[in-house]
Amino acid sequence: MPAARPAAPVAVTGLGLVTAAGIGTEATWDGVCAGVSAAARNPALDGLPVDISCTVPGLDPARHVGRRSVLMHDRFTQLAIVAAREAVADAGLDPRRWDGARVGVVVGCGLGGVSTWEEQHRRMLEGGPGKVSALLVPMLVPNMAAGNLAIDLGATGPNFVTATACSSGATAIGTAAQLLREDACDIVVAGGAEAGISPLMVTGFAQMGALSRRLDEPAAASRPFDAGRDGFVIGEGSGILVLEREADARARGARVRSLLAGYGASADAHHLTAPEPEGRAVLAAVRAALRQADAAPGDIGHVNAHGTSTRLNDAVEAATLRRALGDGAAVTSAKGVLGHTLGAAGAIEAALTVLAVERSLVPPTANLVQLDPDVELDVVAGSPRKASIDAALSTSFGFGGQNAALVFTAA
């Protein structure tokens, strides 16, 4: 776990989002605030036990990334590049003019190029080894999300991918802040990317009982904290933040959208997929993030919860948040709209937390019709809620019991 003592805040100067709500930060924010689920039946999943997904609409690799991208990049890399370009532009930075040796890239990814893996395996079985792309390996390995961003942006500083399952994106952001505080670089492009909507991956999650079976009502399938929740809806997307030391950002006249003030991480050491019932390690991660931010539980006015819409996760998370913070924070989960984007979720939700702090607005939790009576939290539903937010918490948890918590404060 990172040091829990108070640390100098890190400035968030740029945001980039690509999600099932749309391409771009504003499209995603508008979609999440509208509270209308992006989930739908997916023809690419026809014949599977579950065929619902939250898919990014209208992404054209040739137009949004470049003509050669179709041949060179898996979809998770394409999503990362689009989000990163937006984030860097939003930060007012020009990669042609920065010192690339002082720019790091840290991206969270849980799966890598699973669609490429499946497609190329199919080609080998049907046509033999000669039909397999020579770019199979560089298209599918998870580190290529960060490697391709370095190539695209000319960033030659520290460069790697964090893989902590569904907390990968949050882990990447927390790690990026540490790099800045250690003076390993001056700018870090950090976040997460995932494109796991493939027949094999969806079948795997369905076989373990993690996915919603509300097939006759896909738009209502993802319902975090609702009494009728029965599993998550798989999604895809990317969230990228540009992070800088606060003093550096203000010295160059950058718009500081929010401050990343605290990060905590922990492991349940309990089970491959199920959360530890008492939430002890989750509580430790939250408290570590609060200590690093020099914040008290009562300072947290908003929580962007992991909120997967699964029976166990939502119950344990809700009980742990209540224990850590009380019931005074306005809680939401974006997964009702965006689905569960796996390794990208923590980064996408971190970006949404920044926007909530910046705009004093908490988006609703989509499909929350009847709050689970065991969830003793103030979960926002129906419509966005105006709120003055000095500090907010974003929580992320992954298979293997890996937990991450981020605290963002107003700039």
UniProtKB/TrEMBL annotation:
InterPro entries: Beta-ketoacyl_synthase (IPR000794), Ketoacyl_synth_AS (IPR018201), Ketoacyl_synth_C (IPR014031), Ketoacyl_synth_N (IPR014030), PKS_Beta-ketoAc_synthase_dom (IPR020841), Thiolase-like (IPR016039)
Record's keyword terms, sorted: Acyltransferase, Transferase
Pfam families reported in the protein's UniProt record: ketoacyl-synt, Ketoacyl-synt_C
Residues in Ketosynthase family 3 (KS3) domain copies: 7-410
Top-level taxon of the source organism: Bacteria
GO biological process terms held by the UniProt record: fatty acid elongation
Example GO molecular function: 3-oxoacyl-[acyl-carrier-protein] synthase activity
Gene3D superfamilies in UniProt: 3.40.47.10
Protein's name in the database: 3-oxoacyl-ACP synthase
Native source organism of the sequence: Streptosporangium nondiastaticum
Lineage: Bacteria, Bacillati, Actinomycetota, Actinomycetes, Streptosporangiales
